[in-house]
Amino acid sequence: MAKLRRPKPRQKELLLPFKISEKTKLFLPRSIGERMFADVEYIKQHHVDYQPLTTPSGIKLTGPSVLGKIISLMERYTRKTNFFLKEANEHELKFTQQINEHLHKKGLPVESFLEIYNEKGRHLMLVEKKGVSLFSISEQRPLTENEIRGWFHVLGVLNSLGIAHNHPHLNNFFRVKNQTGVFDFKLAKAKNIDWKNLSEIINFFSEDHTQIINIFLRHAIRNPEILQKVKERKADDILIELLNPLPIDPESKNTILRQMNTFLYNVLIPNLREAGYLRYKGIEL
Q: Does domain 132-281 have CATH number 3.90.1150?
C-alpha cells in the first residue's frame, strides 16, 4: 500500500484540504479547490447513476458513481494548473514508481508525486508538473534539434529498461534545465527482453518507433535545418538517439535504423504527400 505523503510546508501554502468522500480528504491546489467546491457539492446533491450531469460552471460529466464524476471533474480543473491528477490501480502505481526510480538513477528528471490516496482500490495521485511539455514548446515555436534528440534519447533509455511506453506523444515528455523527462505509463508494458533476439526487439518496440517517427516527421517539417536533413536522407544521426541506449550490437542498430528509414520514406512521406499535407504546408519531399 502506498504511503500517504503530506504536503511539505511550502506545499501547504499551495494546497487546500478537500473532502471528496467520508473516507478520503484530498489536498488540492488552492486555486482548484476554491473554484471546484460548488461543482462538487452539486454533484453530491444531484448525482444520478450513469446519467450525464452538468455542473454550475458548465462542465458536462458522465460516469457510474459520485466518486467517478468528482475524479473526472478534478482532472478537468488540474489541466489548467501546474498540477495534474492521475488515477491508477495498485499495479499501475507500483509500475510507475519503479520506472521513476530507474529513470532517476539514470540521471533523468521524473514526475513528482505530492500525494497518493487510496479510495476503494483506486489510487488518486496528485502530481506537480516539472518543466514544460514538448507539446507546449512546439505550440510556441518549432522544436530544436537538441530537443528532438532529447526526446528520442529518453525514450531509448526507457526502452533499454525493457519498457515500451506505447504512447510517446509530445505531451508525455517535458524539458527541465536542458534535460528531457517522460511520464504517463498507463499504456506502458515491460518485458524481460532477449537483447540478442532482433525480431523480439523490433516487435516489442514497434509501437514506440512508428509513433515517434510519425510525430518526428510532422515537427521536422517545421524546422528548416531538420527538414533539410530529411530531404538529404541524413536524419540517421537523430534517429540513432532512439537506439544508442539499447544494449545491442552495431549491426542490430543498423538493421533497425534501416527499417525506421523504410517506414519514414516509403510509408509516411508518401502518405502525407497523397493526403495533400505536404502541398498544404508548401513543402517538397
A: no
Cα 162 from chain centroid (whole Å): 18
- Residue 30 in grid coordinates: 488552492
Q: CB neighbours of 132 closer than 8 A, spacing ≥ 6? A: 174, 175
Mean pLDDT for 38-59 is: 83
- When computed from its CA atoms, the radius of gyration of the chain, rounded to whole angstroms, is 22
Q: Give the percent of the chain with pLDDT over 90.
A: 45
Domain edges within the chain: 9-128, 132-281
Contacts 24+ apart (CB under 8 A), 222-225: 222/138, 222/142, 222/143, 223/142, 223/143, 223/144, 223/145, 225/145
Q: In this structure, what DSSP letter does residue 153 have?
A: H
The pLDDT value given to residue 11: 58
- Short-list 103, 80, 98, 79, CA closest to 88: 98
Q: How confident is the model at residue 6 (pLDDT cuts 50, 70, 90)?
A: low
Name the amino acid, one letter, at 93.
Answer: L
Phi/psi at 179 (nearest 5 deg)?
-115, 155
The CA distance from 62 to 52, in Å, is 5
Per-residue pLDDT reduced to its tens digit, 82-136? 677 777 777 888 888 899 999 999 999 888 776 666 666 667 777 777 788 898 8
C-alpha 39, offset from chain centre? 28
- Could you tell me which of 211, 152, 220, 202 has the C-alpha nearest to residue 182? 152
Query: Region 274-279: what's the mean pLDDT?
Result: 87
Structural contact between residues 217 and 278, judged by C-beta atoms closer than 8 angstroms: no
- Predicted local confidence at residue 121, as pLDDT: 64
